Amino acid sequence: MLLMNYITCIILIVLGLYTIVTKKNAMKIVIGMGLLDYGINLLLISVGFKAGGTAPIFTISELDRTSFFVDPVPQALTLTSIVIGACVTALALALVIMINKHYGTLDTDKVRRLKG
Amino acid sequence: MSNKNVKVKEYIIKSAADFFAPIGLILGIYIILHGHLSPGGGFQGGVIVASAAVLIYLGYGYETATNTLKPNLLKKSEAIGALMYSFFALLGIFYAANFCRNVFYNVGNPGDLFSSGTIFLMNFAVGYKVLTGVGFLILLMFGLLANKEA
Amino acid sequence: MTQHLPILAIITLFIGAFIVALIKEKNEVLRNTVVLIATFMSFIFTLMMYKPIIGEGNIITYWMGNWEPVQNWAIGIGLEVDQLSLFFGLFISLSIVLSALYSFKYIEKETGKDKYYVLFLMMSASVMGFIFTGDLFNMYVMIEIMTFASVALTAFRNNKPEAVEAGFKYIAIGSIGSSLILLATVIIYAQFHTLNLAQIAGELHNNYTITTLFALALMVVGYAVKVFAVPTHFVAPDAYMTAPSSISMLFSGIVNKAAVYGILRVLYVVYQSMNLPSVQFMLIFWGTVTMFIGVTMALAQHDFKRLLAFHSISQIGYVITGIGLATALGITGGLYHALNHTLFKGLLFLCAGAVYYATGTTDLDKLGGLAKRMPQTALIFIIGAFSISGIPPFNGFVSKWIIYQASYEAGYAPVTIIALIVSVMTLASFIKVAQSAFFGQLPKEFKNVEEVPLSMRVPMWIMAILCIVGGIFPSSFTKYLITPAANAVMNSAKYVEVMMGPEFASKFYNNLGNAPVIDYKLAGYWQPIAWLILFGILLLAFTLVALLGGFNPKHFSYSDEEDAKYDVFYSGESAEFSHVGGSDLFWGLKYQFRHYFDLMHKIHNGVVNDYALSVVLTAAVVLLYVFTFVR
User: Fold this and answer.
1) How many domains would you assign to chain A?
2) Contact C61, C80 (CB under 8 A)
């Protein structure tokens, strides 16, 4: 089951990079950036998983001697990473809106006044 | 906007928004306040509260949303939330410990709402910052779209 | 009190940013006061760390919330400031103060100043946090905040299409870089279940697996994207050019330097991989390519700030080469050049900003003769230009000389030669700028320009004086700043020992506590004689080649030229008809190497997809290299 996670996150990362590299639409590039982020987040949350572990919450009554926690650190890290990803997406979308306003297009082949 | 179908659709969304916005607000505030006891915390609760802003926008349109929520106030509140967090974190230094140290933690019984010292307050500051920040962000984005339509 | 200094240096900037967000946009006096106080306090806090850290040789460690390691296992977020961090922290906080001072007048006419200062302080704070942290994930968060603020500041003049375009390109490329860093962090966490740099360093000591090497490659590429090393540098000129000059200065002065620090920290202290010849070769090769391509692209530019941006890339190449040599002299040269680059490149960007402030353009074709109207700016520009080109009494000469000598001693003579050539080309392109912006004919529309206000000149003069001081007293600079930092770079064991305790460190390191003795052969470092001899040899070589007919124009066939202006280069017959643009001083050189320049222009094509592709390809090549050669 965990193997499936790893395969999926690699697919997501590669798909994200592929989208950024090949798609000419600025909006799709933002989507690619998102995919890249989600792939890494999935990897991060999978790293902390332990089969059979319970949620890392301090609830004495429900714990017995055999139970153990999954690693809580990656969950905190994933949350941070999601927040950052959301901010980056918001900023990128704002820039896409501005590009559309100035250039009248989202085609990256046409949005290239800065070159050389 | 003169299309009749749109009006009916808006009515449905408005009813749904009326129903779900208070639930979102209460749930979000609950999650912020119980951040030190249960899963969730400032950020998660803040985002849920901010989703109420989306519902208000969907139900009542951009004008009403900005009039009710006042983006400028939200912007200032975000900075206040961040300052609150910095202040509570700096309390650690004032109380002869390190930055972010939890002080006043001997109050109350474990499991109570007021039992965790400044962690609770820090969580509240983060929640306040996030709900205002994300709310402002959402309104800003909608504002850009609304300007484009006009 | 001492142990609180690092967090205070970071948090004052953050608090300053939040307070600025509260102030009304119209209230300029209050806002400027808050910005100045916040940046200056941060600088003072950093300065106060000088005595305990560099003076007495201690390392400050700080555990957030008193979460100290339990059973040799770091569970909290730690700050750790050693001599290397403090070295970077000192000049970064200084340039933040100077940039803030410069900004007050410079962006006076713009709108949205409150947002500018919030982002400015956020960027500064994140760089300070990045420099002082001792936690791998914290490094990622800080560099991401930094990228975020940099992108927003790049697009600050969002009424200009170019600024928005540069911002979008920057965020697309920058987020790939950040994602690579995050991926590497995740992989390292999965291996060692810790994020503390010192603990990872201990675990990684002589203990490479294929997985950690994978993380190494990703992390190096991630920081290379942030440092704008060559195949990933395409967004740098766009961003530097369109951002306000006070921000361009910070891009080259602190954002780039933070990434240099990241490379140093990861390769030297965390991985301790710099004793491997393969890693050394990778960095030296990378740095050399970076410095060469940067400077050749700069020759072909005709925008002041874009030219400076390419020079910034080129100079970072020197720094990477220096730190890649992994000898004491090489690290000294690299660190010294990093410091000098912050000073003279900041100075030059501020000059470009002054020109923009006075005339409203940075296009070299439109400028000219400004030395008459702005004598102080012209003088400061010449100091900066001489520093960056490595002319003797200025600081660039010293650090470049150390790098030449270190690369020659390490057995990389071709690198020395390329570095020399790059230095000459740097001088050439600054002659071009001086000629077309400050000397020559003053265009009519600039008859009434005036010298920039005092508050803009003061930061420029401070940096100019530091440039001269760094060139005249190099030995005291190295003794009081750079040698301790270079020692800290070489001594990973002490870093681990101070952070995690001697018990933990002794598990991995045999010789604890005694730093490896660094042998500074600074003998040839300030000997103009050697420089003169080299100059003489080069002159002799050129004369010989010329006598043997190497430069005989008869060898070239230029009769089928469509443009008569190239004839001038050989015979000058049609000189009266040809007109050379002010910024086109080296048209002959550009014509001779037209295939190279055409190729370069084709590569810098402005399509963000291609830029992203080059980052991905770089990652692939570095991965292959690391898997094949690094053991």
Assistant:
1) 1
2) yes
Cα–Cα distances in angstroms (integers) from residue C215 to residues C180, C185, C204, C207, C567, in the given order: 9, 7, 12, 14, 55
Give the residue among C291, C268, C258, C321 at the shortest CA–CA distance from C93.
Answer: C258
pTM confidence score: 0.90
pLDDT of B134-150, one tens digit each? 888 888 888 877 766 54
Mean pLDDT, range C483-508, rounded to an integer: 85
C3 chain-B contacts, CB cut-off 8 A: 98
A57 lies in some domain: no
Mean pLDDT of C197-215: 88
Burial of C593 (0-12, 13-18, 19+ CB in 10 A): middle
Inter-chain Cβ pairs, chain A and chain C, closer than 8 A: 124
Residue of C18, C19, C64 lying closest to B99 (CB–CB): C64
A83 touches chain B (CB under 8 A): yes
Q: Taking CA atoms, what residue in A is nearest to B136?
A: A90
Which candidate in B31, B38, B126, B142 is best for mutational testing of the A interface (most A CBs within 10 A)?
Answer: B38
Helix C395-409 to helix C454-472 angle, to the nearest 10 degrees? 40
Instruction: Using DSSP, state whether B4 is helix, strand or coil.
Output: helix
Q: Contact at 8 Å (CB) between C422 and C499? A: no
Q: Which letter, b or e, does each residue of A91-110 get, where b requires 16 or more Cβ atoms within 10 Å of its Cβ?
A: bbebbbbbbbebbeebebee
> Looking at residue C579, what is its pLDDT?
54
pLDDT at C528: 58
- Asked if B101 lies within 8 A of C66 by C-beta distance, the reply is yes
Is C63 in Cβ contact with B89 (below 8 Å)? no
Biggest CA-to-CA distance, chain A: 67
For residues B10-30, give the mean pLDDT.
88
Looking at the complex, does the CB of residue B79 fall below 8 Å from at least one CB of chain C?
Answer: yes
| Cβ atoms C496, C505 nearer than 8 A | yes
Q: Please tell me the distance from the alpha carbon of residue C86 to that of residue C482, in angstroms, as a whole number.
A: 10
pLDDT digits (tens, 9 = 90+) for C530-587: 667 877 888 888 788 777 765 555 544 444 555 555 544 544 444 444 555 656 677 7
Neighboring chains of C (3 or more beta-carbon pairs < 8 A): A, B
Helix (H) / strand (E) containing C130 = helix C113-132
CATH at residue A26: 1.10.287.3510
Q: Which residue of C has its CA nearest to B92?
A: C65
pLDDT over 90, % of chain A: 47
In this predicted structure, what is the pLDDT of residue C573? 46
Is B1 a residue whose pLDDT tops 70? Answer: no
Radius of gyration (Cα) for chain B, nearest Å?
A: 19
For chain B, the chains sharing at least 3 beta-carbon pairs closer than 8 angstroms are A, C
User: Chains that contact A by 3+ CB pairs under 8 Å?
Assistant: B, C
What confidence score (pLDDT) does residue C187 get?
93
Show the 3-state SS of B69-138. HCHHHHHHHHHHHHHHHHHHHHHHHHCCCCCCCCCCCCCCCCCCCCCCCHHHHHHHHHHHHHHHHHHHHH
What mean pLDDT comes out for the span C443-471?
88
* C421-440: pLDDT as tens digits: 999 889 888 888 888 888 87
* Nearest CB to B39 within list A57, A90, A101: A57
End-to-end Cα distance, chain B: 12
Chain B 80-109, CB below 8 Å of chain C: which residues? 80, 82-83, 86, 89-90, 92-93, 97-102
Q: Is the pLDDT of residue C81 over 50?
A: yes
Q: Residue C519 above 70 pLDDT?
A: no
Residues of A in contact with B39 (CB under 8 A): 55, 57
Which of A40, A64, A34 minimizes the C-alpha distance to A52? A64
Q: What is the pLDDT of residues C234-247, one digit of tens each?
A: 999 999 999 999 99
| CB atoms C164 and A95 under 8 Å | yes
